[in-house]
Amino acid sequence: MPVTSLRMPSARPPEVAKIKIKIKIKIKIKIKINSQIKSQIKSCAGVEEVGQRHLCQR
After folding, report:
1. Could you tell me if residue 9 is inside a domain?
2. Residue 12: its pLDDT value, please?
């Protein structure tokens, strides 16, 4: 019986693993950006009352 593949039949192919890793990285980046935006909004809410609104505008 010839050996056609050294990979176990239950193991996923490397292409699928690469795609899943890329998706996980994109999700982590989105979560990080969203948390930064939320923290900026919270910090700007307090700054606007002081009168330094120009620092928070984009």
Report:
1. no
2. 74
Alpha-carbon distance of 21 to 14, in angstroms, equals 10
What total of structural domains would you count in the chain? Answer: 1
- DSSP of 5-53: -SS-TTSPPHHHHHHHHHHHHHHHHHHHHHHHHHHHHHHHHHHHHHT-G
Token representation of residue 31: 């979560």
pTM: 0.51
Tell me, yes or no, whether 53 lies in a domain: no
Separation CA 7–CA 5 (nearest Å) = 5
